[in-house]
Amino acid sequence: MGQKINPLGFRLGTTQSHHSFWFAKPKNFSMGLQEDERIRNCIKDYVKKNKRISSGFEGIAHIGIQKRIDLIQVIIYIGFPNLLIEGRTRGVEELQMNVQKEFHSVNRRLNIAITRIEKPYGQPNILAEYIALQLKNRVSFRKAMKKAIELTEQTGTKGIQVQIAGRIDGKEIARVEWIREGRVPLQTIRAKIDHCSHTIRTIYGVLGIKIWIFVNQE
Known about the structure:
InterPro entries: KH_dom-like_a/b, KH_sf_prok-type, Ribosomal_S3_C_sf, Ribosomal_uS3, Ribosomal_uS3_bac-typ, Ribosomal_uS3_C, Ribosomal_uS3_CS
Distance between the termini: 29 Å
Structural class: alpha/beta
Mean pLDDT: 86
Low-confidence stretches: none
CATH architecture of the largest domain: 2-Layer Sandwich
Number of strands: 8
Strand content: 25-35%
Subunit structure: Part of the 30S ribosomal subunit.
CATH class of the largest domain: Alpha Beta
GO cellular component, one term: chloroplast
Order of helices and strands: HEHEEHHEHHEEEE
Family: Belongs to the universal ribosomal protein uS3 family.
CATH topology of the largest domain: GMP Synthetase, Chain A, domain 3
CATH superfamily of the largest domain: K homology (KH) domain
Keywords: Chloroplast, Plastid, Ribonucleoprotein, Ribosomal protein
Helix content: 25-40%
Strand order of the largest sheet: 1-2-3-4
Number of domains: 2
Largest sheet: 4 strands, mixed
Number of helices: 6
């Protein structure tokens, strides 16, 4: 069978760069990795708690982390800035305090910056959240996938593939359904492809969503 590889890891050093920048000795590496995970989870939980009920999704594309000796710089790439700031200028400061509390680092400052993304629906994470929200509201999966593809096409991407796996529509037997629009050259390393996998908990079990977006070719 075809050996599947994560398109992001496959392209590291050509079209992809790391989301975390830091160096550590081999014995401290795992601690640094866990710290990154904690920071990301803490930010996502905070956004989940403080978002508006109506919007229903976080709108975070990805979180970049850069560590220096005395500073941890966290950059949140966000599609819809009002979700996080929400009319309060204190939103970011409050988030900073929350994350600082989460890991008790005495000699390192934490700095959080927010970067807005021009075309949020060109980001696979935001699209996956959009589809997850539709499926939770019992919209048929084909409709949700087609709507997501329409939204992506408006951002000028060259191709997109969406795959949903699990007990779709509550059927007894789990299956995989996918839909592709345009080109998605997964074998071409020069092709810049964004990918994400997202799990959603529905009332009849867990569904997995995978999205590949072909942005451009270098």
